[in-house]
Design brief:
2 domains, about 280 residues, 18 strands, elongated, alpha+beta, Archaeosine Trna-guanine Transglycosylase, Chain: A, domain 4, Pseudouridine synthase
Length: about 280
C-alpha cells in the first residue's frame, strides 16, 4: 500500500483486504472515492492456493515463527486430510491468530505479542465454501490445497486447525490469493509494472470496477437525488438486493439497496454530477 501511495500522492488509497507478509497474490486497491467500496469487495469470496506443512508447529502458524513442536508424519497423510476437509466446510468459529492485524485496545495483536503482552482469546465466525487437495509429489509432509472462503478467514488458523483435527502439528508453508470476487491473478497487474508508469491505464472506473453488481440506469434528475441520499422509485427497473446506479452518461454514483423498483442509497461516491 505504501508503494501505491507513492504513485498517487495526495489521493486517498484503501484496500479490500491485505495479505500476510509471506503471502502473495491478488490485492484489490481502491483510490479516491472508490475507497468507500472496500466493504463491498471484502464481502466477496476469496480463493487461495497454498501448502500446509505437517509435522511442525510454530507460534506464528507459518514458517516465519519459532518452532514449538516437531513430530512424525504418517504415510497415509493425504487420505487423512481428504477425509478431514469436509468437516471444515460451512460456517464455524475460528480462533484469531495472536500474530495478526486484529486489534485490542486499538493496538494490533502482533504488536502486543512482540512487546511481550498478552492478547485476548478471540473467535470469529468465518465461512469456508470449498476445500480441496491438489496434487503434490515433492514430500509426504506437504499438502497442496485450494480454498474458497468468505470474508475475514485466516488460512494460517485453518492450517493449524486441520493439523489439530488429525492430531499432527501443522503450519502454513506457502499462500497465494488467486481471486478476490471477480478479480483473478491472470488479470491482475504486478506492482513492478505500476511503478514503471502504467497505473493510469489499469484503473477501473464506474460499473466496470464492480462487475458482479447489477447495474441500474437512472435519469440525471433521479441520479442527483439518489446521490444526495433520497430514496427513489425507478419504474421499470428491477434488480436484486444491491444495485450500482449510473447516470445517463454511464457514470457510477452510488451503490443502493433495492426493493423492487425502489432504491435506497447505501454507499454514495459523489454528490454532484461530476465523476468521483
Amino acid at each position: 500500500m505504501r508503494a501505491v501511495r507513492r504513485l498517487v500522492p495526495g489521493t486517498k488509497v484503501g484496500h479490500a483486504g491485505t495479505l500476510d507478509p509471506a503471502a502473495d497474490g491478488v490485492v484489490v486497491v481502491c483510490l479516491g472515492a472508490y475507497t468507500r467500496l472496500a466493504a463491498l469487495f471484502q464481502a466477496t469470496p476469496k480463493e487461495y492456493e497454498g501448502v500446509v506443512l505437517f509435522g511442525r508447529s510454530t507460534d506464528t502458524l507459518d514458517l516465519q515463527g519459532r518452532t514449538i513442536l516437531r513430530c512424525y508424519v504418517p504415510e497415509d497423510l493425504p487420505q487423512r486430510v481428504a477425509a478431514a476437509l469436509p468437516a471444515f466446510c460451512g460456517g464455524y468459529l475460528q480462533e484469531v491468530p495472536r500474530y495478526s492485524a486484529a486489534k485490542h485496545g486499538g493496538v494490533a495483536f502482533h504488536r502486543l505479542v512482540r512487546k511481550g503482552m498478552e492478547t485476548p482469546l478471540r473467535r470469529k465466525w468465518v465461512e469456508l465454501h470449498r476445500a480441496e487437495v491438489l496434487p503434490d509429489c515433492r514430500s509426504r509432509r506437504r499438502i497442496r490445497f485450494k480454498l474458497v472462503t468468505g470474508s475475514g478467514f485466516y488460512v494460517r488458523a485453518w492450517a493449524k486447525d486441520l493439523g489439530d483435527a488429525l492430531g499432527i502439528p501443522a503450519l502454513l508453508a506457502r499462500l497465494t490469493r488467486t481471486r478476490v470476487g471477480s478479480y483473478r491473478m491472470e488479470t491482475s497487474v504486478a506492482l513492478e509494472e505500476l511503478e514503471r508508469g502504467s497505473l493510469a491505464r489499469h484503473i477501473l472506473r464506474d460499473a466496470a470496477a464492480i462487475p458482479w453488481v447489477p447495474v441500474v440506469n437512472a435519469d440525471d434528475d433521479a441520479f442527483d437525488r439518489l446521490c444526495h441520499g433520497q430514496a427513489q422509485e425507478l419504474p421499470g427497473e428491477r434488480c436484486g438486493e444491491t444495485a450500482a446506479v449510473v447516470n445517463e452518461s454511464g457514470c457510477l454514483g452510488l451503490i443502493a439497496h433495492a426493493q423492487g423498483s425502489v432504491l435506497q442509497p447505501w454507499i454514495v461516491l459523489k454528490t454532484t454530477g461530476l465523476a468521483p
